[in-house]
Specification:
The protein has about 140 residues and is mostly helical. It has one domain. It is built from 7 helices and no strands. Helix 2 packs across helix 3.
Amino acid sequence: MDDRKLQPLIREIRSQNGRRFAEAAYFFVLEALDFTIFLQGKGQAPTESRHINGRELLDGIRRYAQEEFGPLAPFAFRSWGVTRTEDFGALVFQMCEAGLLNRAENDHPRDFANGFDFEQAFLDPTPMREAARRGPVKEEA
């Protein structure tokens, strides 16, 4: 769906939920869902439909955030009012209640609890990899 068509609906969702999260958080979750569906769909027939559960979506959110923001992901999340993975569940279920997303009968907000640690999940491993390639540091006499 076009962002221009989504924006009024997301504004209404925010209004109904006390504007707890920034608009960007809703758009990010929708983009991360598309990303997750794409990753999950690799190797599946194009007509095959598959539900993405909370844990799978959290993994997709983490992976998408790593690609989009790298180690700055926690800062982006906090600027949107998202401070823990449970907040992603709140965003998803707000969009479900508004009819923007569908949920399965066994989907629950608790599926998003304790998904990953924001600080640890987005540490930049590049310096560690480069140091490992160089080998141990030699002390000069």
